[in-house]
Design a protein that fits this description.
The complex is a heterodimer of chains A (113) and B (112). Chain A is mainly beta and 113 residues long. Chain A has no helices and eleven strands. Classes of the chains: A mainly beta (113), B mainly beta (112).
Chain lengths: 113, 112
């Protein structure tokens, strides 16, 4: 089976702009979770989607949003970018859900200038 | 809030040595997961533990789910250069929803 894919791999945006990141899960996986990874804060859970519904949400501001499509592909959006949003954004898919056997994609490295 | 502590924060070992690292918390978890992350890549699942006291192996890796459900341990035997990376533990707690928390990671360097 193909692994989790994320696009784009690298992105440079300017403060105030918005960005959309995409994740294609492993075939058959219905759960997609998003994480933000920074050197200072480590891996922080953003949200999880299961069968097109947001099931869990972490402690991030409303500028961070996501959605999942009927084919389980997911997108996350960050509006009004801030410098502190620079991070590696990781997507993970699972058959069951967050915290179970999740498989991570390579991540999207977002730099906000 | 809930937090996971990992120790050591970093380690430098000689190739062939055994490695031990652990993950502790003041909270009880239902599942423990161990991941390894190479530079520029996403974490890769190494071992999943679902029951207190469970001991599971994956090749040279062995992990245990602590009896108190507040800790977990990972051992790597006979380390090799490709073991280099950051090892994360993650705990899942079941509240009104599944909540997963990641530890800060243990950075492992192997000296050939």
């Amino acid at each position: 089976k193909a692994g989790v894919t994320q696009t784009p791999r690298y992105l440079i945006k300017t403060r105030g702009q918005q960005v959309t990141l995409s994740c294609s899960p492993i075939s058959g996986h219905r759960s997609v979770s998003w994480y933000q990874q920074t050197p200072g804060q480590g891996l922080q859970f953003l949200f999880e989607y299961f069968s097109e519904t947001q099931r869990n949400k972490g402690n991030f501001p409303g500028r961070f949003s996501g959605r999942q499509f009927s084919n389980s592909r997911s997108e996350m959006n960050v509006s009004t970018l801030e410098l502190g949003d620079s991070a590696l954004y990781l997507c993970a898919s699972s058959e069951v859900g967050t915290g179970y056997e999740q498989y991570f994609g390579p991540g999207t490295r977002l730099t906000v200038t | 809030g809930q937090q996971l502590n990992q120790s050591p924060q970093s380690m430098f070992i000689q190739e062939g040595e055994d490695v031990s690292m652990n993950c502790t918390s003041s909270s009880i978890f239902n599942t423990w997961l161990w991941y390894k992350q190479d530079p520029g890549e996403g974490p890769v699942l190494l071992i999943a533990l679902y029951k207190a006291g469970e001991l599971t192996s994956n090749g040279r890796l062995t992990a245990q789910f602590g009896i108190t459900r507040k800790d977990s341990f990972l051992n790597i035997s006979a380390s090799i250069p490709s073991d280099v990376g950051i090892y994360f533990c993650a705990g899942l707690m079941k509240t009104s929803y599944d909540k997963v928390i990641f530890g800060p990671g243990t950075s492992l360097s192997v000296i050939p």
